[in-house]
Amino acid sequence: MSDVSVKICGLTAPDHVRAAADAGARYLGFNFFPKSPRYVSPQQAAALFEHVPVGVAKVALVVNATDELLDSITAVAPFDMLQLHGSESVERVQEIKARYGLPVIKVVGVADAEDLAAIDTYCDVADQLLIDAKAPKSSVLPGGNGLAFDWRLLAGRKYWRKPWMLAGGLNPGNVAEAIRMTGARQVDVASGVESAPGIKDAAMVRAFVDAAIRAG
Ligand SMILES: O=C(O)c1ccccc1NCC(=O)[C@H](O)[C@H](O)COP(=O)(O)O
After folding, report:
1. 71, 114, 172, 185: which one has the fewest Cβ atoms less than 10 Å from its Cβ?
2. Is the shortest distance between the CB of 38 and ligand 1 below 6 Å?
């Protein structure tokens, strides 16, 4: 049996949620970055939760969020985890964990070998790491850009002290190779399973999850 878990990120509609859960995703991500084509309000997220089966983790994705924003999200939608996708410091991660009592996934953007040091730093405070391609400086979005980093940077480095996910430019056609090269046991995708920005494609979601699980 495969031990690879999949997170489908940026769900915006009930049929996307059902498609991801039916395909076997273990985590579903809901995006609260206002400039994202995948943005949902806390009320929309709460309504989408009605389509999430028990046992599938609901993850709130935020970027350098204030307590005010996090309060407004967590008051309305009972999330299982928080994904911090900005430049949150170690201290801010600790503060958020203490205030909300939820496990935190800290995102680390990688473009070259020097960026890997941040993974060790955040291992001390985060519950999981998400290793994503660093967004280009010109990009409006800090994630969800469909860009991959050089997976060879992770080759041979299978274990950190915390569980981690691989993200960035993954799609049904390359996820097996990414898993093989990096040893990732968890993978995350947003744009690679969409027919247009913010619109998940059920067949692509299914193909992605199947390919990831088969590769595990
Ligand atoms: O997806 C977005 O629009 C987004 C916006 C702002 C911050 C993060 C965002 N996505 C984060 C994710 O978790 C993505 O799954 C990850 O960056 C990989 O994206 P992709 O390369 O499109 O699969």
Report:
1. 114
2. yes
Does 28 contact ligand 1 (Cβ within 6 A)? no
CB 81 within 8 A of CB 61: no
Q: Cα(137) to centroid of ligand 1, in Å?
A: 15
Q: What is the pLDDT of residues 82-121, one digit of tens each?
A: 999 999 999 999 999 999 999 999 999 999 999 999 999 9
The answer to whether the beta carbons of residues 175 and 193 sit under 8 Å apart is no
Taking the whole predicted model, whether its pTM rises above 0.90 is answered as: yes
What are the sequence ranges of the domains in the chain?
5-215
pLDDT at 2: 80
**Pocket flag, ligand 1, residue 172 (CB < 6 Å):** no
Query: CA 182: distance to chain centroid?
Result: 17
Q: Which amino acid is at 127?
A: D
Task: Give the per-residue pLDDT at 119.
Answer: 94
Helix (H), strand (E) at residue 75: helix 67-76
On whether ipTM exceeds 0.90, the answer is yes
Pocket test for ligand 1, best of 132, 134, 151 (most atoms within 8 A of CB): 132
Give me Rg for the CA atoms of the chain.
16
Report DSSP letters for 35-74, one per residue: TSTTB--HHHHHHHGGGSPTTSEEEEEESS--HHHHHHHH
What pLDDT digit, counting tens, does each position of 135-159 carry? 998 999 999 999 999 999 998 775 6
